[in-house]
Amino acid sequence: MRLLKVKVKPNSKRSKVVEEGDTLVVWVKAPAREGRANDELLDVLADYLNVPKSSLRIVRGMRSRSKIVSVG
Q1: pLDDT at 65
Q2: CATH topology assigned to domain 2-71
Q3: Does the pTM of the predicted model rise above 0.90?
């Protein structure tokens, strides 16, 4: 299992991922309401990391823009 530091930017015009040091900054189109941004975050990370979405889990920060995501 690998842990990733992630910073989420909701309400973006397009989805993308940028590495900044040891943190992944992820822009998502979805708003930060009712878990929609978290769902899209996992979709975007799964594509970026080339892993199934089911192997990703938000460990810490469900209601924060700074998150810890486990892979595997």
Answers
A1: 97
A2: Conserved Hypothetical Protein Mth637; Chain: A; (3.30.1200)
A3: yes
